[in-house]
Amino acid sequence: MNRRTALRRLLYIAGGTLLLPACYRQSGKETIALTHLVIDEEQENLMAELVETIIPASDTPGGKELLLHLFVFKMVDDCHKPEDQADFAAGLASFAACSREKMGQDFRQLTTDQRIVFLESIEEMANEQVKRFYAITKRRTIQGYTNSKYVMTDLKKYELVPGRYNGYFKMG
């Protein structure tokens, strides 16, 4: 056996060992470790669809592809007060129930147009938990998108301060 073959096999074994735990994800567990919030897989998938509805994929990546739902969870878990975290968790549960009640289906099963109609109707709802949840989610989703690697590297062109020199610019 030559050295290259042995190294190649060793790398395959190491790569498989690193990849194997990802294949055995227990159903019902969240993807991201949170300290104060308790989120299950169903709620995480609901949040992923909500974030994708707020920032849909087009020629640019959408909210789900940029993992903005995980950003929202992490920001609420780390940066919000305990009462806001409680409102957020209660609002997430109420959001799913309101979707079933108002639209007759789970939010994830709605078409894109139905989702938009439902999100626009949140403003007129009497449920304050859902309103608060949606406001936090929308704000953090937009913050996550504008601070994402994709936006910062591909969409915004950074220019060093003080910018370009323009010799033709008239002064006063």
UniProtKB/TrEMBL annotation:
Tell me the protein's name.
Gluconate 2-dehydrogenase subunit 3 family protein
Q: Which InterPro entries match?
A: Gluconate_2DH_su3
- On the tree of life, the source organism's domain of life is Bacteria
